[in-house]
Amino acid sequence: MIHVVTLEPHEPELVDAVRRALFSGFGVGAELTGQFSIPESAIVDGGLDAEKLAFAAESLKTFADDKVLYLVKRPFRPRASPAGLLPTHGFADYGKERAVISAALVTQGYPTIEAQAQRLAKLALHTVGHLFDLHHCVDLRCAMAVPWGMVFLQGQTVELCSFCRDKSERRMKNLVV
What we know:
alpha/beta
């Protein structure tokens, strides 16, 4: 099961698009589990820190193979890299349980709720993919392509390529056995 938790109010269409994309991409249940508040400890120098938020957000009772995706509207603080500061779309505790994404960067500039929902759903699929041990994909149409590239943000597909889908299915089978 993939639990979707909002930490700020979101448009129902956006949350529903995220749930549908996760169900379609991974073939497991994806449900809106609730709405919590952003913990103060995730706010650093007036900005929201994605990694701190993922670990500080209120916990859910889950089973060992469940995943939790937290959604916020506010932008995250940029993260440091060798190339300088990079925009942060989200954070996933790779191969584990928790991930967080922000709707701020992927919905800005798109006036229709449908376009915003498609972009947020693709980011959700990408981020939860990391929870299932998926790495970035070279197929630019795949949701596991790097999310900071223009092709990712402009792409029309909200799905995994066959390689990433097969890998996630193998990973899920190993979790269940």
